[in-house]
């Protein structure tokens, strides 16, 4: 005999005084029906009131396992908005939805086709993963309109770098928590503005330097912090070099792109070129190259530096500080490698530019620890790579999922593993390195004041002129 569902038994439930079936997935529905019908009686005795109140209480404290495995109540989910629906957006959309704790309700981009792609990807995710037809994401052209929504808890910012500060500062002011892709900011001054806005409005801010939530990088840092390779003397970071001047030719504008809005805070007008903002078909073949040009990014120095220099800063326990000197390579050296950052304790951070995978190598008095994505190697003792660090040793922040860590921090109102200050300090090292490369000379840095000592020209490069509408 086919089992009768609770919905089919709604009328029978009260007429026949049947008890709700606690084994049924619709147990809560049964309880609700029963409570409502009892409470709607025209008169009620004290005994009936207490009985119904107890019954109602039972309804509101139903164990979650009754609702189905993995169920998360809608009230427990965070509503996210997304700003910048380019090539990185499908990945970020998926990893946050995979946590089961997030619902996307809005997405904004100046390229209509990319906002539409985000909306469609969300629908597909719900169909494939949750077997539901849902259409929860509202598209926007201007993210400021999206920020006015009171139902949005947090935003993910995945725009080109020249937009990070303008978007993040306004998101914080609107009361939204922020996950912002790395590098944190285009300039040092914009990075500091993002920190200030976060603190002023009591926001949770996670920088997208997700290597901090990867086991191999945590292992390398804890080996360093616990002295397993001796006293650190040098750190080598292998990434490519600084950005280049703008040299692209004007091309035909694709339909649905607001180019003036894409340029946004920049005061220098640049022509459209598909390498900067490709249509979806061309974007599928390569990573957009806005990051290679000074107007919009910081080259590999900031793009990959926000990962590998970040690990160096973490290992050296410099998340709230930075180097004191930037030593330019000797005359005749290639203009995109060889820069040395010197810390107050004498440790040297050396920028290499080998044709190898981006990596960070800590060099100590008794050994070395090399780490790249998916691999860690130590020498002369190869066993250190798998050394189990004890609970009583010097441990660093534990995160195995960068995205869940952000969500957890939102709920606890705490700092995530790569807080805005951490992201800013790493971004600063990358940015001042680019300034030294451009000026082709050594510089002295005051990390506390975030200024160069006695160098007006270099200090003028710590920020940039922005359109008044977008100033931070």
Question: What this model shows, in words?
Answer:
It is built from 16 helices and 15 strands. With 472 residues, it is of the alpha/beta class. The chain has four domains: 10-67, no CATH class; 74-210, 3-Layer(aba) Sandwich (Rossmann fold), CATH 3.40.50; 211-243 and 299-395 and 430-454, Dihydrodipicolinate Reductase, domain 2 (2-Layer Sandwich), CATH 3.30.360; 246-289, no CATH class. Helix 7 (164-173) links the parallel strand 4 and strand 5 (177-180). It is globular and about 60 Å long.
Q: Helical residue percent?
A: 25-40%
Please indicate the percent range of residues in DSSP E strands (runs of 2 or more).
Answer: 5-15%
Radius of gyration: 27 Å
Shape: globular
How many strand elements? 15
CATH architecture of the largest domain: 2-Layer Sandwich
Task: List segments where confidence is low: pLDDT < 50 over at least 5 consecutive residues.
Answer: 1-71
Give the distance, in angstroms, between the N- and C-terminal Cα atoms. 68 Å
Counting helices, strands and paired strands, the structural category is alpha/beta
CATH top level class name of the largest domain? Alpha Beta
Summed over residues and divided by their number, the pLDDT gives a mean of: 88
CATH topology of the largest domain: Dihydrodipicolinate Reductase, domain 2
Main β sheet profile: 9 strands, mixed
Figure out the total of helices: 16
Strand order of the largest sheet: 13-12-11-7-10-9-8-14-15
Domain count, please report it.
Answer: 4
């Amino acid at each position: 005999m086919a089992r009768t569902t609770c919905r089919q038994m709604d009328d029978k439930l009260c007429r026949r005084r049947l008890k709700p079936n606690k084994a049924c997935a619709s147990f809560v529905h049964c309880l609700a029906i029963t409570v409502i019908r009892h409470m709607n009686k025209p008169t009620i005795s004290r005994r009936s009131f207490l009985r119904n109140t107890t019954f109602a209480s039972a309804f509101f404290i139903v164990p979650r396992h009754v609702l189905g495995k993995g169920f998360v109540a809608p009230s427990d989910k965070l509503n996210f908005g997304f700003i910048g629906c380019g090539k990185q957006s499908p990945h970020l959309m998926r990893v946050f939805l995979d946590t089961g704790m997030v619902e996307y309700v809005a997405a904004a981009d100046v390229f209509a086709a990319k906002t539409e792609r985000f909306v469609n990807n969300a629908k597909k995710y719900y169909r494939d993963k949750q077997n539901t037809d849902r259409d929860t994401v509202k598209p926007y052209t201007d993210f400021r309109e999206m920020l006015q929504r009171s139902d949005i808890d947090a935003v993910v910012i995945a725009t080109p770098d020249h937009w990070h500060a303008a978007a993040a500062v306004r998101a914080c002011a609107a009361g939204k928590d922020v996950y912002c892709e790395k590098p944190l900011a285009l300039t040092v001054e914009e990075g500091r503005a993002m920190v200030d806005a976060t603190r002023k409005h009591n926001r949770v801010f996670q920088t997208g330097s997700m290597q901090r939530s990867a086991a191999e990088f945590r292992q390398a840092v804890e080996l360093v912090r616990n002295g397993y390779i001796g006293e650190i003397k040098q750190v080598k970071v292998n990434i490519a070099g600084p950005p280049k001047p703008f040299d692209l030719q004007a091309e035909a504008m694709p339909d649905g792109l607001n180019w003036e809005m894409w340029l946004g805070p920049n005061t220098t007008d640049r022509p459209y070129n598909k390498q900067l903002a490709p249509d979806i078909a061309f974007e599928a073949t390569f990573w957009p190259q806005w990051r290679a040009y000074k107007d919009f990014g910081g080259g590999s120095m900031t793009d990959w530096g926000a990962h590998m220099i970040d690990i160096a800063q973490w290992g050296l326990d410099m998340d709230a500080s930075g180097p004191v000197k930037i030593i330019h390579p000797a005359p005749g050296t290639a203009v995109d490698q060889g820069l040395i950052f010197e810390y107050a304790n004498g440790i040297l951070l050396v920028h290499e530019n080998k044709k190898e995978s981006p990596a960070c190598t800590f060099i100590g008095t008794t050994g070395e620890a090399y780490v790249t994505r998916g691999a860690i190697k130590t020498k002369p003792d190869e066993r250190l790579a798998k050394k189990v660090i004890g609970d009583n040793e010097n441990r660093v922040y534990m995160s195995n999922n960068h995205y869940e860590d952000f969500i957890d921090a939102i709920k606890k109102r705490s700092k995530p593993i790569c807080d805005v200050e951490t992201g800013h300090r790493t971004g600063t090292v990358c940015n001042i390195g680019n300034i030294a490369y451009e000026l082709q000379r050594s510089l002295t840095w005051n990390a506390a004041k975030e200024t160069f000592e006695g160098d007006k020209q270099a200090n003028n490069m710590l920020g940039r002129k922005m359109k008044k509408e977008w100033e931070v």
